[in-house]
Design brief:
Chain A is an alpha/beta fold. Chain A has 10 helices and 19 strands. In chain A, strands 1, 2, 13, 14, 15, 16 and 19 form a 7-stranded mixed sheet that branches. Chain A has a 4-stranded parallel sheet with strand order 8-7-11-12. A two-stranded antiparallel sheet of chain A has the order 3-6. By secondary structure, chain B is of the alpha+beta class. The chains are: A alpha/beta, B alpha+beta. The interface between A and B is large, with 102 and 93 residues.
């Protein structure tokens, strides 16, 4: 018997999970198909709605107030504040106490692993004590064996930004013995399992041993920031134990891959899908479709070189952008590989980028164009299919990286696409 | 003037560094000035081929003979810079039989070991060669790391007392009564190692003799001295692949042509090249068709290149020269030979010689000739030892060791570190400190980065050429920031960030030419990591924006106590024992 759903969502990132949850909310039967691990492994875990806007100098404090300054055709302009709020509500319900920020529309400022201050809308509880608009004295701790992050340098850089609190930094030798070139996962595991480590001739549980190393540097600090490797499955317990031993608040600074806050978010979202009764097929890519006129009948999934049709009434495309391979390219052009939706791009490959590494890169805007119903449009501005909607990174037209609106656009489009797909049943 | 003549060498490429080493070893007092980093000009922008001489075996047998001689010398004195990959001249069905025969005979006439391989034998060596190739000639081509070689020459020169000044641009050649008496340079920082924020100065450096080893820039230096040196710079593109599709240098066995060589280099392959005359060695177009041409044409030899991933492309400028009046139209016909222009004989300006033309493989021989010439000027009779004395890193290092145990590094990282460092491995790697990996693609550890910083100051591009950090597949996506961290606390926060920005922009320069397919995905990840995760593009410290911290979320408690945009939280919303409010 062929697989048949009301709504089929392709992609397991923030947009895909939001779309699936929103569709399930309408009462539709939903299946989510994912290929590999989502790009959340590479994401900081912060949920940015809008950090910078054309008419605002410096970081945006109220993203909702800044929406009207965004260019025409921006997903926020197309879908409106309702979709953003809807997406945030789905997110807030899914993550519960694991995140903060839902108490206000105002952006929070957090410190990145690169030392820069960044505006964001929702932040993992593990990062909450690191808010920059909080005037408690801060100590930032780096591990000498961790090259991605330098606690003293970050502290100096924060001080240079004129933050409203005193900040010190220190680089510590992590307790325990590791290979000279061991990876950060070793530290996360040691803290997660809380196994005994050698510390100055004594044997101490890992969390206590870490706290002992940090303690002499604490000074007047009321809060201690560490790279976001404080445990994996037991992150809350790791943090609570460190806080208890140190007598100070402890927070994480999100880093690049492997990003524990990103991985933890992925787990939370998939638990939420499970709870909402969304069916899940993972490990196989969607490679094509079957259509009847302008309606998609089925999405073809490649299961170990066997092409299996997943038929559905409504389909949401949430396969990601260039990083997630929802958008692909070669020397000749840029395309959306599953449905071959139109992806606007300059003909000349040398017009895809600009010379400044942080300039306004056209490639950062590559993706399908959508209408107010989230439907991808062909070159003439007509929906590609009557029952296909797009959400998240696969949607183009705007540089979400520069705007710091990546997760927000995923939530808004995921919510709008998922809700519309569910309501169309 | 002291008793020891002081010679000033302009140009920190292979030739200039080679000359500096030779002069220093023969007892001269030597100063080398280079406007950028070592290898900044042409040396750092070549395909890394250690010629067997096979390429010139038909057209220019004198050069071919020099190449095979120097090929043998470099294997000996620079073993840690050379990988003897071997080379193939591959004939396709449409390529001329007569030329193939000429190539074979030419190699033999020049003393280049050459062996004919059938198509099957060639494909056994290199399985990804096209199935329809006809046959091949096997020669002892190799791969050489021009950065490491140049730095080793400079280090050896320093050991022999030479002064090396990088980031010192010549702004004037000092001439008195038809004699060159020195130069004036503008130090970007310093003098000394380049360190950010150290203010630059100008300095007049007087010398008894000046050697211009500035290649494609020789005309510009000549002009400052009031003499005409008509170099004919010719650009060529090189496209770097993400992996080694071949482990042997693969040449097309054709008379001449663009896009006819693939050189395996470290973890990559380099495709080359084009040959187009340009006006200005620093300002010429870098064009898409050149990159496409490399991929399309070389996939006739190695079909898998067609869809393989490239990580960047770069262009170099050959310092071609021909004596006035030769009038060759096509730059590919201009001789690859080198010329020693004694400006006293040629222009009536004493005290200066320019060296132009030539090839990387024969840099040492060119340096020897020029040093002989300088010796003659001073009536000094000193023997050249550069062909016999190994370069630093290549001394006495032949024992296979258990790197993993010895340096506490996982096997491939230890092996690659030791390959790069050669006999310096002990000195550099045994620090007794944690030695995490900084650049994963190229397996570069902190110890090696620190060693490079010690040598070159706060310039991360100088660290890059010494270590290969940020030169691999991810093009610095993960390690540019880590490399900047390594500068701190030796250099301050502001310097670490400036050095990061410089390196990041430099990496982008070449990566732009590889933006499609997987490398475009990689570039987007790099952009996202730095802009979304780290917010480097809107970093308030770097943009100079003042932030009103009170206008942002102060935590959950702040919301209830003083409104959404109120003052800062008192406990940040985290219940934690021992936290007693915002007083400090």
């Amino acid at each position: 018997m062929a697989i048949h759903e009301d709504v089929l969502v392709i992609g397991g990132g923030i947009a895909g999970t939001t779309a699936a949850l929103a569709a399930a909310e309408t009462g539709a039967q939903v299946r989510l198909v994912t290929h590999k691990k989502s790009t959340l492994r590479q994401a900081s875990g912060l949920i940015d709605v809008l950090g910078y806007a054309p008419d605002v100098d410096g970081p945006v404090s109220d993203p909702f107030a800044a929406i009207e300054s965004l260019p025409e055709g921006h997903p926020y302009q197309l879908l409106g504040e309702t979709a953003i709020r809807g997406g945030l509500t789905v997110f807030d319900e899914a993550v519960g106490e694991a995140y903060e920020g839902s108490h206000t529309d105002t952006n929070a400022l957090l410190t990145t692993s690169g030392g820069a201050i960044k505006p964001t809308s929702r932040y993992p509880t593990s990062t909450a004590a690191g808010l920059v608009s909080d005037d408690r004295a801060m100590l930032i701790v780096g591990f000498r064996s961790l090259t991605d992050f330098d606690g003293e340098l970050v502290a100096d850089h924060l001080a240079a930004a004129g933050v409203p609190f005193s900040v010190d930094g220190v680089e510590i030798e992590v307790p325990g013995s590791y290979r000279a070139d061991s990876r950060v996962t070793r530290i996360a595991n040691a803290l997660d399992l809380n196994k005994d480590l050698d510390y100055e001739g004594r044997s101490l549980p890992a969390r206590e041993a870490f706290a002992e190393v940090i303690k002499p540097h604490l000074g007047d600090a009321d809060r201690v920031g560490l790279p976001a490797v404080l445990g994996d499955d037991h992150a809350d317990a790791v943090r609570a134990d460190l806080e208890r031993h140190l007598g100070a608040a402890v927070f994480e600074l999100p880093m690049g891959p492997p990003s524990y806050p990103g991985l933890r978010l992925e787990d939370i979202l998939f638990d939420a899908l499970d709870e909402a009764g969304v069916r899940l097929s993972d490990g196989n890519p969607a490679v094509g479709y079957e259509a009847d006129g302008d309606a998609i009948d089925a999405v073809i999934v490649d299961q170990m070189n066997k092409e299996v049709p997943y038929s559905a009434e409504q389909v949401v495309l949430a396969t990601g952008g260039l990083v997630g391979k929802g958008i692909d390219s070669d020397r000749e052009g840029v395309r959306e590989p599953v449905f071959d939706c139109h992806v606007p791009h300059p003909d000349d490959r040398y017009d895809w980028f600009v010379d400044d590494a942080f300039g306004e890169h056209p490639f950062a805007k590559f993706g399908v164009q959508i209408d107010e119903a989230c439907k991808p449009l062909d070159a003439d501005g007509v929906p590609e299919f009557s029952n296909l909607r797009a959400a998240g990174g696969v949607v183009g037209g705007v540089d979400r990286t520069a705007e710091k609106s990546k997760s927000g656009v995923s939530l808004a489009t995921g919510y709008a696409a998922g809700t519309a797909a569910g309501e169309a049943i | 003037m002291t008793d020891t003549p002081h010679v000033l060498v302009i140009g920190g490429g292979s030739t200039g560094c080679g000359i500096t080493r030779d002069l220093a070893m023969r007892g001269f007092e030597v100063t080398l000035v280079e406007k950028g980093n070592l290898t900044h000009g042409t040396t750092g922008r070549m395909h890394g081929l250690l010629h067997s001489g096979g390429r010139y075996a038909v057209s220019d047998q004198a050069s071919a003979t020099e190449c095979i001689e120097e090929n043998r010398v470099l294997r000996d004195i620079a073993s840690h810079c050379v990988e003897m990959t071997g080379g193939l001249f591959v004939q396709r069905p449409e390529d001329d039989d007569e030329y193939f025969q000429k190539k074979l005979e030419g190699c033999r006439e020049c003393g280049i070991p050459a062996e004919v391989l059938s198509a099957e034998e060639a494909r056994e060596m290199e399985p990804y060669l096209a199935t329809d190739i006809k046959r091949a000639i096997k020669v002892p081509d190799g791969a050489v790391d021009p950065f490491r070689l140049c730095v080793a020459n400079a280090a050896s020169a320093q050991e022999h007392g030479a002064r090396i000044e990088t980031h010192a641009e010549v702004i004037d050649v000092l001439v008195e009564d038809d004699q060159v008496v020195g130069i004036e340079v503008k130090h970007d920082s310093g003098p000394g190692k380049r360190e950010h924020k150290t203010p630059g100065t100008t300095e007049k450096i007087y010398a008894d003799y000046v050697v211009s080893a500035t290649g494609a820039w020789a005309g510009q230096i000549g002009e400052m001295a009031g003499v005409d040196v008509e170099v004919r710079p010719s650009k060529g593109v090189m496209t770097i692949m993400n992996t080694r599709q071949v482990d042997t240098v693969v040449n097309r066995c054709k008379p001449k042509g663009d896009a006819d060589i693939v050189v395996p280099h470290e973890t990559t392959c380099i495709l080359g090249t084009t040959d187009i005359e340009v006006e200005d060695p620093e300002d010429y177009p870098e064009e898409q068709w050149e990159v496409d041409h490399m991929i399309d044409t070389l996939s006739e030899l190695v079909p898998m290149l067609k869809d393989a991933r490239t990580i960047r492309s770069f262009w170099g400028v050959r310092p071609l020269y021909e004596p006035p009046g030769t009038g060759t139209d096509d730059p590919t016909d201009i001789t690859r030979d080198f010329f020693l222009l004694d400006h006293e004989e040629r222009d009536g300006l004493s005290g200066m010689t320019s060296i132009v033309g030539g090839k990387f493989t024969t840099y040492r021989m060119m340096a020897e000739k020029i040093t002989d010439h300088v010796c003659e000027q001073f009536g000094i009779d000193a023997e050249c030892r550069t062909a016999d004395e190994p370069l630093p890193g290549s001394e006495d290092f032949s024992v296979l060791r258990d790197y993993m145990d010895e340096f506490g590094l996982r096997s491939p990282i230890g092996r690659r570190s030791v390959q790069r460092l050669g006999s310096r491995a002990d000195e550099v790697l045994k620090t007794g400190e944690p030695n995490p990996v900084v650049c994963e693609c190229e397996a570069v550890t902190r110890a090696e980065i620190q060693d490079a910083i010690e040598q070159s100051g706060s310039d991360l591009n100088a660290v890059r050429i010494r270590t290969r950090a940020s030169m691999g597949n991810c093009q610095g996506a993960f390690c540019c920031q880590r490399m900047a961290h390594e500068l701190y606390p030796k250099y301050d926060e502001e310097t670490a960030y400036s050095a990061f920005d410089e390196l990041f922009q430099e990496r982008w320069k070449g990566e732009r030419h590889a933006l499609w397919g997987q490398q475009l995905s990689q570039a987007m990840l790099k952009y996202s990591l730095h802009s979304t995760t780290m917010n480097a593009d809107h970093d308030a410290v770097r943009t100079g924006d003042a932030i009103d911290f009170t206008a942002f979320d102060g935590g959950t408690d702040a919301a209830s106590k003083s409104g959404a945009t109120g003052a800062a939280a008192t406990d940040g919303g985290v219940s934690s024992p021992g936290t007693n409010g915002g007083d400090r």
